[in-house]
Specification:
Blueprint: E1 31-35, H1 45-55, E2 60-63, H2 68-73, E3 80-85, H3 90-93, H4 96-106, E4 116-121, H5 131-150, E5 158-160, E6 162-164, E7 168-170, E8 178-179, H6 183-197, E9 202-205, H7 208-211, H8 217-220, E10 228-230, E11 235-237, H9 240-254, E12 262-267, H10 282-296, E13 312-315, E14 377-380, H11 386-399, H12 422-436, E15 450-453, E16 461-466, E17 470-478, E18 485-494
Parallel strand pairs: 1-2, 1-13, 2-3, 3-4, 4-5, 6-9, 9-12, 12-13
Antiparallel strand pairs: 7-8, 10-11, 14-15, 16-17, 17-18
Helix pairs in contact: 4-5, 5-6, 11-12
Length: 498
């Protein structure tokens, strides 16, 4: 249809001033998992990646070495992948030529097909006590970032490093948290400065399991308890994780870095342990991880960091039967080698009850009642960048394989192909995924680029976009079930340049 200088006469006048205004109401947290491979009974990486994509709510994965087979397995899934540099490579990474070669070998061949979002330089390096590793940690991070910048990837991939709680010399009460002397000024302050300058998070591995006793087990498991009163702030803590995170925050704040994001790089609970270990067991593991997921995504935050969510990685995806150490070290897994859950934490997507070949599907009506999330749609946030939206499309189109029309409508020749823009296609894809997966809030996160709206796109809505030279008007419509929707037609009057 030819462009017109006026709106088509059949558009109702009452809609001419109606806009879809999207606010940032999504749950910003998300659940990731640590994918360790110190085992001899694990399924192939490609099977693992497909399982996570299609059968779980996990949308972030951390691996512990730059294994090309693992990195390649997550190609075209959209799952956000974090790669860890082994500790023994840290000193060599302080050399720019080695860092550049590392990026060429382990990152560039797989990006952007694999959604690589972060590189972790070592793991709990300060706790090793190795002076060479500790002294080269920050230089290695800086050099690796320079190598990313040389490949024009520094704004796409972050650099950080995870720490154990052993970096704290004081953690009780949480308001008095401090880093170990010597490390605080000479190592951690430069490290925190690097993270701030590169917009990267501080990463910590809190494990309430290792910090609890018989008396504090309920406190560690988020169960009802008397709590702990911080005498300095008069705040009563009701769970150990909040206290651990706030102790880290206090230590960071004392160095002038209270503004940095904190990411939980590892946390978990073993389903089996030594008889002398308090709390190890399947029931407690299920309770901890279930309550953890609810808490970090609730938006409540912690007493010293209120109103926020925490990007969190559960340890771990599988039990690892070849790991040394006590029994618990081999039994943190959420799934067995046959991909069946070790226990139920609500991490699997809803499935139809038609047998073992069931696939993820929209939530079914419950007793004839209203479907969960009915009257809600997922759309891209205003200001979301095109690269992020393209990654959302790639993720969704992999996840929806075999589910209804999938991404067919936004392929060339499909009913929603026009307008042929990333933003328009993302609008379709993100909402299709949200509807297909059961309208869970976390299914509209998309790394903080999605937002849930109650404005019904099944109405003929007029969206106007104004800029200095151009006015566009797009009409939206949807199919009969009120689920997926797409641009139906476009009209505009545009002049370029003066």
């Amino acid at each position: 249809m030819a462009a017109s200088s006026s709106l088509p006469h059949h558009v109702p006048t009452a809609l001419t001033l109606l806009f879809i205004l999207v606010s940032a109401t999504t749950t910003n947290g998300s659940i990731g998992v640590n994918y360790g491979t110190v085992a001899d009974d694990l399924p192939p990486p490609g099977e693992v990646a497909r399982f996570l994509l299609q059968s779980t709510v996990i949308n972030r994965v951390r691996i512990f070495d730059p294994n090309p087979e693992l990195i390649q397995a997550f190609a075209h899934t959209g799952i956000q992948l974090t790669v860890t540099v082994p500790n023994d490579q840290i000193p060599r990474l302080a050399n720019l030529s080695f860092a550049q070669q590392w990026i060429k070998s382990y990152i560039q061949p797989y990006f952007p097909a694999t959604n690589l979002v972060r590189i972790l330089v070592g793991n709990e390096v300060l706790s090793t006590g190795n002076r060479l590793l500790i002294g080269t940690l920050v230089p290695a991070m800086q050099t690796l970032h320079a190598a990313l910048a040389g490949a024009s990837l520094d704004r796409r991939i972050q650099i950080s490093t995870p720490h154990s709680l052993g970096i704290l010399s004081a953690s009780t009460p949480p308001s008095a948290g401090k880093f170990h002397g010597g490390y605080d000024v000479h190592i951690l302050k430069p490290l925190l400065g690097f993270l701030r300058s590169t917009n990267s998070p501080f990463m910590i591995n809190p494990y309430p399991f290792f910090g609890c006793s018989e008396e504090t087990l309920d406190y560690a498991l988020f169960r009802p308890n008397l709590g702990f009163l911080d005498p300095n702030t008069r705040i009563r803590y009701t769970n150990m994780l909040d206290a651990q995170l706030d102790a880290v925050f206090s230590a960071m704040k004392s160095l002038g870095f209270g503004d940095l994001e904190i990411v939980i790089a590892e946390t978990g609970w073993p389903s089996k342990g030594e008889p002398s270990q308090i709390g190890a067991g399947q029931e407690n593991a299920a309770q901890y991880n279930r309550n953890l997921m609810r808490h970090v995504n609730s938006g409540d935050g912690t007493p010293l960091m209120p109103n926020r969510t925490f990007e969190t990685y559960i340890f771990s995806l599988f039990n690892e039967d070849l790991k040394p150490g006590p029994t618990c070290e081999r039994n943190f897994g959420l799934f067995g080698p046959d991909l069946t859950p070790a226990y139920d934490v609500g991490i699997l997507r809803p499935t139809r009850s038609s047998g073992p070949t069931a696939t993820p599907s929209p939530a079914e009506p419950d007793g004839g009642g209203e479907r969960k999330g009915a009257g809600k749609w997922c759309v891209a946030k205003e200001g979301a960048d095109v690269d992020s939206l393209q990654r959302n499309i790639d993720y969704v189109c992999g996840a929806l394989v075999g589910l209804g029309p999938g991404c067919g409508p936004i392929q060339e020749g499909g009913e929603c192909f026009f307008p042929d823009t990333v933003r328009a296609h993302a609008a379709y894809a993100m909402n299709a995924f949200y509807q297909a997966m059961g309208r869970n809030d976390y299914d509209c996160d998309f790394r903080r680029t999605g937002a849930i709206t109650a404005v019904d796109p099944s109405l003929l809505l007029l969206k106007l976009r104004f800029d200095s030279f151009c006015v566009y008007a797009f009409i939206f419509t949807c199919d009969d079930d009120g689920g997926r929707w797409c641009n139906f037609a476009g009209y505009g009057n545009c002049k370029y340049g003066h």
